[in-house]
Specification:
Layout: E1 3-5, H1 6-13, E2 16-18, E3 26-28, E4 30-31, E5 42-44, H2 57-62, E6 67-70, E7 80-82, H3 86-101, E8 104-109, H4 114-126, E9 131-133, H5 143-149, E10 157-161, H6 169-177, E11 181-184, H7 198-211, E12 217-221, H8 227-231, E13 237-241, E14 251-257, E15 263-269, E16 272-278, H9 283-298, H10 303-310, E17 321-325, E18 328-332
Parallel strand pairs: 4-5, 5-6, 6-7, 8-10, 8-11, 9-10, 11-12, 12-13
Antiparallel strand pairs: 1-3, 2-7, 14-15, 15-16, 17-18
Helix pairs in contact: 3-5, 4-9, 4-10, 6-7, 9-10
Length: 341
Amino acid sequence: MVEAEVWRIAQVIGGVVVGEGDPHAVVRGVAIDSRKVRGGEAFFALKGERRDGHLFVDEAFAKGAVCAVVERLEGSRGTRILVKDTLRALARLAEWWRGEIGAVVVAITGSVGKTTTKELTAAALGEWFSVHKSPGTYNTEIGLPLTILSAPRGTEVLVTEMAMRGPGQIRELCRIARPKVGVVTRVGRAHLEFFGSEEEIALAKGELIESLPEDGVAVLRADDWAFGLLKGRAKARVLTFAGAPDGADFWPRGIRSFGAEGVEVRADTPVGAVRFKLMLPGRENGINALAALAVAYALGVPLKRAVRGLERVEPLPGRLKMRSIKGVKVIDDTYNASPES
C-alpha cells in the first residue's frame, strides 16, 4: 500500500499541511470510509451524493488516521492537508504511487464479464509474477485509485477494471493507471441510457485501446461486432480471442459444459493447443479464460503455468455460484448486472 510522509503526500497532491501534528509522520494506506480506518491511513474526505466525508474527519482521527485530506477546515485540530478537490487529490496520489511501484498495468473493460475476466487474468499471471488486483468491482474514478494505492511495493503486475458511464471516463482512468495491456471483453448495450447509440458505447470503450502505448498489447474479441472499430484505434499490437479459427490467436476449438461444475476448454494458441477445466460454469467463462491466456502470453507467462492458475479460480459470489440450502441446490446469479450478462 502507499507509504509516504505527510509532507510528501501534500507535495504530490498539491495541498497545504495545516493543523497540529507531525508533517514527517508516515502514512500507510488510504481510506475514504471512516468506519474502515484501522490506524495509520490518510483519510480522504470525499463529497458524495448522500454524504460528505468532511462530517467524518473527527471519527477518522479517533480511529487512528494520521492525516485527513480536506477541502475545508472545520472541527478537528488533527493534521490536515488542504486541497481544492479531494477526488482529484486521490487520483493524483494514485498516479504518483503507480509510478513509484513501477508495475505493469493490465486494464480490463467491456459491457460484460469484466470482473470474472479480471479474476482469471490475475490468476493466470499470478503463477509467474507478483500480482495485485482490484478488489471486487473497484472500477470507477474512486475504485481505480484505491486499487492502485492498495498495491504494495514489489508488485510486478497490477490487474485493474475500468468502468464508465459516459465518454471520456475511461480515458481519464487510463491517465491515472497508464496501462500497458488492455482487454475489451465485449461491447453491449449496458449504460446505453448515457449514450446515443451502441457505436458511441464502443467508442467510449475504445478509449482504453487508444491509450495503450505502441509497445503495449490490446486484447480484443474477434467475433464482437465492434472488433473492427476497436482494432482500428490501436497503436499497440493486437491479440485476438474467440472468433473463427483462421482469425483469432486464442480460438476455442471446443467448450464442454459440466453444468454447475464448470467447463472444459480446448483451444488453439500461438504456442500450441491447450486443454483445461474451469470451475466456473458457462461457455462465456471459457471465452473469458482465453482473454486471460492472451494477457499471460503477452507478458511472457508459460502456457502451462497460466493454465494452472486458471484452473484454481472459484466461482465469484453472485455470479453463477452453486449453493446448497437444506439439500436444495441453488444457483446464485444475483449480482447486479445487465441483461446481456
